[in-house]
Amino acid sequence: MGESPADDPAFLARLRDGEEAAFARLVEDHQDRIARFLYRMLGPGGDIEDAAQVVFTKAFLSIGSFREEVSLESWLYRIARNHAIDRLRRKKARPERTFASLSEDEQVHVEEHVAAPGDDPSERAEATERSRAAFEALSKISEDDRALLILKEVEGKSLEEISKITGASVGALKVRVFRARQRLKKAAVWE
Amino acid sequence: MGPHISEERLQAIAFGDTPALAGEKNHFVSCESCRRALKEYEEAAGLTGALAKAPSHPLLRPGFSGRVLARAREEKAGGNWIEKLLKVARFEIPALAAVAAALLLLGIRTERAGESPQLAAAAQAEEEMVFWPAEETDEAWAEWLFTSEESDTDG
């Protein structure tokens, strides 16, 4: 994140006043991070543009309910996490989000974009395969577990930060992470 | 060989929370079971690691914040309309409920007050009607039976 004034009280007051320029700044500061998180949650076939729009629109409309106990970034992650979980449950996306079930275009899209540009072909193929396997394994565990593992292992959030995002205590999160890792291991082994 | 390494420790080592201690490293050399369990956890950790690199492409088209603001304005306008409707409903629905209750109460009272004297007298007479002979004599019973049969077959 750049020099985001997100947690500056004056900036927050502007957001609460509904100042669009301030909100646009908030969006620009966080849109890439939130979009990546949504991509990891929803998978390559998810409509990330729409999901991200929903997340920021919700933030815009409910900024009045924001409490400073958490940072604006944690609050945005909370909205994104809840929305992604809702979206997965509503569309029953788990069985549909397997790599094999993606359309040919989507599979090509994953293969082209998952690996970093400039990788040699063999590395690129390996990265694609690993990414495919990751989405496949994540699609076999619950949405809550998936969100928790993505926040912890992929986004690199601390348990304290995840606690602010999810509202669960750090103690409870330790247990949940332990169990989620067990389930992921099982999903990976039985893949 | 020593005791097996706990699952918590296997996870912590595989997911990089903490490095393996010297004793644990030695244990992995000699214990096939712990080595295999560690490998499985390392594979799971590797999957999440693969996602950390994804995606390499931009996910949002340029001008994203403008599109969000447009959508927010639209939803806010729609939300205001719903809000107004709810505000009206908040006042209207209890008032309608009170009126309905009052009408119901009034209706019950009117119904009670509106019973005709003739109907009330008939009901009273029905309650007081004697169905059995006045006396427990054979003649009385025969007469009662005769009149009952006559009335049953009338018409």
Short description:
The complex is a heterodimer of chains A (191) and B (155). Chain A is an all-alpha fold and 191 residues long.
Write the layout of secondary structure elements.
The complex is a heterodimer of chains A (191) and B (155).
Chain A: H1 9-16, H2 20-42, H3 48-61, H4 72-90, H5 93-96, H6 104-113, H7 121-138, H8 143-154, H9 159-166, H10 170-189
Helix pairs in contact in A: 2-3, 2-4, 3-4, 4-9, 6-7, 8-10
Chain B: H1 7-14, H2 22-30, H3 32-52, H4 64-113, H5 117-128, H6 138-153
Structural commentary:
Chain A is mostly helical and about 190 residues long. Chain A has helices at about 10-15, 20-40, 50-60, 70-90, 95, 105-115, 120-140, 145-155, 160-165, 170-190. The longest helix of chain A has 23 residues, at about 20-40. The termini of chain A are far apart. The mean pLDDT of chain A is about 85. Chain B is about 75% helix and about 0% strand. Chain B has 6 helices and no strands. The interface between A and B is large, with 47 and 36 residues.
